[in-house]
Amino acid sequence: MDLGIKGKWALVCGASKGLGLGCAQALVEEGVNVLIVARGLEVLQQAAEKLIADQAHHTGATVLFVAADITTEAGRAAVFAVRQDFDIVVTNAGGPPPGDFRDWAREDWIKAVDANMLTPIELIKATVDGMAARGFGRIINITSSAVKAPIDILGLSNGARSGLTGFVAGVSRSALAAQGVTINNLLPGAFDTDRLKTTMQGAAQKTGQPIEAIMDARRKTIPAKRFGNPEEFGAICAFLCSQQAAYINGQNVLADGGAYPGAF
Questions:
Q1: Residues of the chain whose pLDDT is less than 70?
Q2: C-alpha span between 202 and 218 (Å, rounded)
Q3: What is the pLDDT, as a whole number, of residue 232?
Q4: Exposure on the CB side of residue 66, measured as CA atoms within 13 A
Q5: What span, in angstroms and rounded, lies between the C-alpha atoms of 113 and 156?
Q6: What's the per-residue H, E or C state across the chain?
Q7: Which of 78, 79, 136, 217 is least crowded, fewest Cβ atoms below 10 Å from its Cβ?
């Protein structure tokens, strides 16, 4: 299927590895030009080189990269100094660390909200009017399955990402919807990423069990009996960015192998 987005420009955050890189790969495969952002220059540059060699070489897409902390004002300024206008924005920032809420200070909450709620809002604010003027825009916020089924040790993430979800529910249904701009959240469950390993390590420390046992137990709770991979996550992201997905707006799209037990 031709997704109809060849030649568009996308900003993909947290794209040096994991789910962000999976999204960038899928978009470049569709001929989308991408500017990828992450904090670590070396890993980011390697990711850009891989995108060029594996996908862009065949589709003719342009791949740019900026090593910056997108959760800071200076980091966002560095990105928009390279390019102002984007047709697609994939927001993604590393989740806050797991832990016991009793141990978190106000500064921990502020950092979590800044990275996982306010940063996506700033990126939306900086790009949606240009999208609306051009009559096409796709914003995908990578949040978490914990928005639907909160996890006790991820309180910082539960709170910050739920705040973003509430904001998106409103803004996605504003006048932007009639101007060709859609805003959706993509909620990953257990995917085989560094983030999953960090969360499992936190659970292992809390329970005193080996991390292998924790991961095996988690895997067994998933009807698919496996963890997801970044490539299949990226494919979902690319579809939500497509011309065909123009009537999908303001939704929380859950990708978790069937782990969420609810009907809604």
A1: none
A2: 13
A3: 97
A4: 19
A5: 8
A6: CCCCCCCCEEEEECCCCHHHHHHHHHHHHCCCEEEEEECCHHHHHHHHHHHHHHHHHHHCCCEEEEECCCCCHHHHHHHHHHCCCCCEEEECCCCCCCCCHHHCCHHHHHHHHHHHHHHHHHHHHHHHHHHHHHCCEEEEEECCHHHCCCCHHHHHHHHHHHHHHHHHHHHCCCHHHHHCEEEEEEEECCECCHHHHHHHHHHHHHHCCCHHHHHHHHHHCCCCCCCECHHHHHHHHHHHCCCCCCCCCCCEEEECCCCCCCCC
A7: 217
Q: How far apart are CA 157 and CA 223, in angstroms?
A: 24
Residue labelled with tokens 């469950």: 189
CA pair distance 67, 28, nearest whole angstrom: 19
- Is residue 91 within 8 Å of residue 140, measured between CB atoms? yes
**The pair of three-digit structure tokens given for residue 31, joined into one six-digit string:** 């001929």
Closest CA to 8 of 185, 122, 130, 173: 130
Instruction: List pLDDT tens digits, range 8-28.
Output: 999 999 999 999 999 999 999
pLDDT at 57: 87
pLDDT of residue 112: 94
CA distance 10 to 240: 13
Residue 94 is predicted with a pLDDT of 80
**pLDDT digit string (tens) for 84-109?**
999 999 999 888 888 889 999 999 99
Q: Which residue has the tokens 């540059």?
A: 45
Quote the CA–CA distance of 156 and 96 in Å, as a whole number. Answer: 6
Cα of 209 vs its chain's centroid, Å: 30
